[in-house]
Amino acid sequence: MANVLLVEPDILLGKTYAAALEIAGHRVKWRRTAQTAIRSVDAKSPDLIILELQLAMHNGIEFLYEFRSYNDWQTVPVIVLSHVQPALRAVSPMLWEQLHVVAYHYKPLTKLNDIIRSVDRVLALAI
User: Which of 41, 50, 78, 106 sits a CA distance of 20 to 30 A from 115?
Assistant: First the structure.
């Protein structure tokens, strides 16, 4: 059982993703903004982050830069689950590697089972 931080601003999607991850056996902290996500990891460091890039006030990239500025959180794997087209990843592959983004899912084409498989695969590699 892993501690997953889900950063998803949409209420319906957040509830849906959190429920699916919990059914799959993970503990989930769901946060809707970058600020609340950063505050929540102070109490318990996540084993994995699932992140939407389109967030209010601070976007997902800004969240990752701030998150990675803390030594304890530099290697926590991140799965991007976003409405932002995956072509963004091709613009700067080194950026994604530097920010330790291990998977990228484009929401319109991603099923819940795809997310669960991705989480399980990433966590299995981290062991």
Answer: 41
C-alpha radius of gyration, the chain, whole number: 13
| Separation between Cα atoms, residue 114 and residue 107, nearest integer Å | 10
Query: CB-based contacts of 79: which residues, under 8 Å, 6+ apart?
Result: 48, 49, 50, 51, 101, 102, 103, 104, 105, 115, 118, 119, 122
93: burial class by Cβ within 10 Å (0-12, 13-18, 19+)?
Answer: exposed
SS3 call for 4: strand
Residue ranges of alpha helices (H) inside the chain are: 11-23, 34-43, 60-68, 87-91, 93-98, 112-126
Taking the CA atoms of 46, 50, 56 and 60 in sequence, report the sign of the dihedral they define: positive
Q: What is the mean pLDDT of residues 51-70?
A: 88
Residue 28 three-state SS: strand
Is CATH 3.40.50.2300 correct for 3-126?
yes
| Strands 101-106, 78-82: pairing kind | parallel
**pTM of the prediction?**
0.91
